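Incident log, support desk, overnight shift.

02:14 A customer reports that sequence design results differ from what the structure should imply. Their input is reproduced verbatim below. On-call engineer (initials T.W.) acknowledged and began investigating.
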């Protein structure tokens, strides 16, 4: 790669007045590159706590408000919980019958830590985690990007053992702190500054105001296609930047130490929606600029507590965690299903954004080169079995979508553990066969280019994926 090409690689920044903005890939400067790193392979995992609604078939709510679809692999029917993903039907895969063997009899309040690791952390006693799926890939993909991974959650930080507020764990099993303030994430990804620049930026409405004028000389060197790419990219960054203040209000609003169901926050439900969407947009921009190829976003910690427990206000409901305890009350399954639907809706919005964006290298769209996963380590009422998982994208990685894949034996209708609203469920005997989720993780790692045949102590890949 010659000097000119190297200076305008994916990791090049637009610089001015002490600030720097990561740039997307440009075809103009691709000639002479090695070709080893032209089309990125991306991974993102979104985790939601508290599981999903799984009523009994005998319950009138089953038809509309059970999370899992009805039907077979290709002729499945989405219920009202996931029908917001119908426009993306051909781009998603829904899984049942997968879980981590070591967690199947661990209470759902204690299981989030092992969702991406599969480690036998148990429900009590000594605690030792292991590397998470995202970090196993980040060790490989981080060589190509400015940030090896982007770790986010609504609560931020790490939480405590069996009460994680991050999905990411390093090679030694130590938690990686999650970021939860949109402005801090934005600045980390797109603005690097010295002290003088920081002072100027504090008095400005936009970081881009300092940089736009510096695009003119670069634009003269770009092809017409790249000029349009640059314009769209800068518009997207500015649009996200303008949303930050309102989104930040949601996370900055103090959470009093009282029963969350009785709270009336100054931050309104519309700002909860904006916060959610802005966090997703930051992942999108991080991928578009190739600032990272690995991201995790934890929508909340298990067992409530914190701002995430109030995201359900965005759809006119009470505290999110409380919804799982009230399924037998009037409209209980509907309320939980409505919140699960909201989670799926925002994930679908993000997936559609990737699909609508051409890959800067010209090889399909961004979704084609991204494996996006959305799931929880609980199904019905904190039951650490039959994880509800959706994946999207990855066409160029070898994934075939538009399917509902059932694994294991004895629970093809997802009724094992259905209808429960007490802890008797997780304490009950495991009577059905489920496959290790780590087999899917091995498959994902291999298709992302990582040479491995095991993960979390489990060998082999997942067939049919």
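02:41 Re-run completed on a clean worker. Output:
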């Amino acid at each position: 790669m010659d000097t000119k090409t190297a200076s305008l690689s994916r990791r090049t920044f637009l610089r001015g007045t002490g600030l720097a903005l990561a740039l997307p890939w440009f075809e103009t400067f691709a000639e002479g590159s090695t070709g080893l790193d032209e089309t990125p392979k991306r991974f993102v995992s979104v985790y939601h706590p508290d599981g999903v609604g799984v009523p009994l078939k005998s319950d009138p709510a089953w038809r509309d408000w059970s999370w899992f679809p009805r039907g077979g692999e290709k002729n499945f029917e989405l219920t009202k919980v996931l029908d917001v993903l119908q426009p993306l039907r051909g781009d998603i895969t829904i899984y049942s019958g997968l879980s981590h063997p070591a967690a199947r009899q661990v209470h759902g309040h204690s299981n989030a830590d092992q969702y991406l690791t599969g480690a036998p952390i148990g429900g009590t006693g000594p605690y030792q985690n292991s590397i998470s799926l995202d970090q196993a890939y980040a060790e490989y993909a981080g060589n190509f990007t400015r940030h090896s991974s982007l770790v986010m959650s609504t609560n931020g930080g790490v939480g405590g053992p069996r009460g994680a507020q991050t999905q990411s764990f390093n090679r030694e099993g130590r938690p990686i702190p999650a970021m939860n303030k949109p402005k801090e994430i934005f600045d980390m990804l797109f603005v690097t500054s010295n002290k003088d620049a920081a002072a100027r930026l504090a008095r400005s409405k936009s970081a881009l105001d300092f940089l736009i004028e510096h695009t003119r000389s670069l634009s003269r060197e770009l092809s017409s296609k790249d000029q349009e790419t640059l314009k769209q990219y800068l518009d997207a960054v500015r649009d996200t930047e303008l949303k930050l203040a309102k989104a930040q209000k949601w996370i900055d609003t103090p959470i009093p130490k009282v029963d969350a169901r009785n709270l009336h926050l100054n931050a309104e439900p519309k700002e909860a929606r904006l916060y959610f969407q802005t966090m997703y947009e930051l992942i999108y921009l991080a991928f578009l600029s190739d600032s990272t190829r690995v991201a995790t976003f934890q929508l909340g910690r298990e067992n409530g507590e914190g701002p995430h427990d109030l995201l359900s206000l965005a759809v006119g409901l009470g505290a999110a965690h409380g919804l799982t305890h009230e399924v037998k009350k009037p409209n209980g399954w509907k309320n939980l299903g409505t919140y699960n639907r909201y989670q799926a809706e925002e994930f679908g919005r993000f997936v559609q954004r990737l699909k609508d964006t051409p890959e800067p290298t010209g090889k399909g769209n961004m979704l084609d080169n991204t494996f996006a996963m959305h799931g929880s380590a609980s199904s019905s009422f904190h039951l650490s079995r039959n994880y509800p998982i959706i994946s999207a994208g990855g066409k160029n990685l070898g994934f075939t979508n538009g399917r509902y894949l059932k694994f294991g034996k004895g629970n093809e209708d997802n009724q094992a553990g259905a209808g429960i609203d007490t802890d008797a469920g997780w304490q009950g005997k495991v009577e059905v066969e489920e496959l290790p989720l780590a087999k899917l993780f091995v498959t994902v790692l291999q298709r992302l280019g990582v040479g491995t045949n095991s993960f979390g102590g489990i060998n082999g890949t997942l067939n049919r994926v």
